[in-house]
Every structure is written in structure tokens, then in C-alpha cells.
Amino acid sequence: MIYLDANATTPIDPEVLEVMLPFLRDHYANPSASYSSARVVKKALVMAREQVAALIDAAPDEIVFTSGGTESNNAAIGSALTLSHPRKSHFITVKTEHPAVLEPAKRWSESERYVSYLDVDHQGLLDAEELKSCVKEGQTALVSVMWANNETGVLSPIEKAAQYAHDHGAMFHTDAVQAMGKIPVSVKTTPIDYLSMSGHKFHAPKGVGALFISRRVRFKPWILGGGQEFGRRSGSENMASIVAMGKAAEMMRERLSHEGAVAIKSMRDAFEKMIMVALPDTKVNGSLEHRLPNTSSLCFPGVDAAAMLILLDEKGVACSAGSACHAEALHPSRVLEAMGCDAVHAGSTLRFSWSHFNTMAETVIAADLVIACVSKFKSLTVAGSVKLN
Length: 389
Ligand SMILES: Cc1ncc(COP(=O)(O)O)c(C=O)c1O
Fold this sequence. Notes:
It is a single chain. The chain has helices spanning 14-25, 36-55, 69-83, 99-108, 128-134, 158-167, 239-257, 260-278, 305-315, 334-338, 343-346, 360-383, and strands spanning 2-3, 63-66, 90-94, 114-118, 140-144, 171-175, 194-198, 209-213, 283-284, 295-299, 317-318, 349-353. The chain is globular, with a radius of gyration of 22 Å. It is an alpha/beta fold. It has two domains: 2-9 and 259-383, Aspartate Aminotransferase, domain 1 (Alpha-Beta Complex), CATH 3.90.1150.10; 14-256, Aspartate Aminotransferase, domain 2. α3 (69-83) runs parallel beside α4 (99-108). Pyridoxal-5'-phosphate is lined by residues 68-70, 98, 100, 146, 150, 175, 177-178, 198, 200, 209, 325.
């Protein structure tokens, strides 16, 4: 199988698996225990925290391990909106955010908070000036803007958004789940208060993530209990996965500083070029300039994305229509809708996304297969009978 769905999840890196296995097999002690076998585990927890912190230029005590991006988003939003209430009850976010932000926003709007949902333009870009005019001094508690969009890869103007939030006394959260390991992310250069990460998007297992909480801000814990994670996220630590996330973070940092991101971009660009030459009516969704190097959201006019998924799966190519990580059934993409695309356009869109595990050779094969499947689909629809074999 040619796996081009890295934005949904990535395979565990063999080196990551290697470091996590002893924590499933041998090092089972609870890191809070006092005997010597627990000290090995405690040491590994400290190291994983340092490794994750280093990926975003944070201090280790600003990192809290969670169960993933969804929990991190819920915890950050819940903390900010609880701490500021009833003084400030305004929350600003963007229409193209992941459901792990939009659903908490909806829930909080049921309890005396009001939410503003910012628009994006037809390229998926947020206008930072519009954000600026929406932040209300003394009223806005939190601004949450994702670093990179999961469906289109479009990047947000994070520096400006964070600055404008702070200029008016609001806290700033970013869902950086899709940005981590793909582009440099630094909390040193950008004034961020909360930042969400997810291990399975960069070759650690599913079910582990982290929340960066700046030393500048307070945090109201969401999950209460035994006081693990500096009292910020209770529950015995998911050690094997935490160790894995630490190792994966270290490897991504290394790859980012070398050739990694460039190699991924050249695969994505070669893929798009082949498709554009063979199928010139194909449209790229989202800004070409402000986009993750690994993501390609393509609209094939006249083609049914659901049928294409089946055809491509039969040929051994895994990709997705819209965002595959939160639903089994296909439904119109809220992201494309917010960009002004109609249902027909959205229904003809496929997302391809690359990771370090892909090769140029398989990328070329995948492009040929996509071209063949789209051409076949078009010829069948012209003939009036669509058969999926
Ligand atoms: C932008 C974004 N935020 C949050 C999440 C949720 O992360 P997790 O699967 O770790 O809960 C995802 C998952 O696809 C995502 O793409």
C-alpha cells in the first residue's frame, strides 16, 4: 500500500517502537513509586518531557502529557474560559478549526460564554486584522487559532494572532497538532500561552499528546486525581507512549534541521506537477504560499471523491476525502465550506499527505494511479455508467 494519509495518522517509527517496548515489557513500575525500578521510569519521564520541550523551544516544566490533541485542546480552552469567568466571557476562534476546538467552543457557549467564529478567505487564510478588530479589551478571555489546517495544510498568521490577543489582554491558544515535526514551531519566537500537540501525527503511537502551558499563565486542571504532571493532569502516566513521543520529538527535531522537510515538499510538489500536467482542470485547495510542505488538497472537477477513495484503495493508494481522522462517514467538509467552496467542489476533493516514510518512487506511482483512476471515472461518467471495478 502507498500510504498518503499522514495528516490522519503516521506509522510508528521503528526506532520509536524500540524505545517504547521495554516500558511495556520490563519497566512497568509506576514512576511515582520509591523503589529503584521506578527510578528508571521516572528518569525516562523526565527525559521525554525534555525532548518534547526541545521541539518547541519550551522549558520542560511547561509540558504536560495528555492523551492526545483532542484532550490538549479541551484542557486549554476549558482552563482559560474557567479562570477568566465571570470577568471575561468572550472566546474567539476560526471556522476552519478542528472539531476538537469547535465542539468545546459549542459546549462553552451553552454556559454564559459567547463565541466569535472568524471567517477565512477562499484560500483558507485568516485575516489577522479581522481578528484584531474582534478582540475586545476586558471581554475576550481567549483566542484559539490553529497553526496549520489538517485538511488543506493552510498556515495561520500565528505571530500576529498571538500578538493581537495579548495586546488586548486575551490569552492565546494554538492547535499545533498538524504543524509539529513538519515546520519549525517555537514558543520562544511567538508569544503563545497554550499549545496542543499529538504524538501520532509524528510517528509516535495514538493516544498520547502534550499541552504546552507557558510559565506566564495559570492553568486550571481539567482531570483531577492523584496530582501527576505537576498536578495539572492526573492519572498514572502512559509511560510507553510518553517515552515514544519523546523519542519521536527528538527525531523530528533532527529531521527538521536537516533535509527532512525539503524531501517531503519535493515529493508533494512532484505529485501535484504530474497531476496538473495530465489533468489540467485539477484545482489545489488553499494558499500555495502559506501551506504545510506535506499536504495536497485537490479538487478533481466532475469526480466523486467517495468513489475515488474506493478505486484508489483497490489500486493500493490510501488517501482521504476531507478530514478522515474524526469520522467514518463522509460528510461535507466544513473547512472547504468556510473557504466558499460549494458541496460539489467539496465532494470532488481528495487530500493526500506525506510523511518521512514515503519515497519519491511510490509518489510517482501514486500520481500515475490517481491520473488513471480520475480519467477512468471521467470516461465512465461521460458514457453514463459508473462502475467501480
Ligand atoms: C488539527 C488537529 N487537531 C486535533 C486533532 C486531534 O488529535 P488526536 O487525534 O491526538 O486527539 C487532530 C487529529 O487529526 C488534528 O488534525
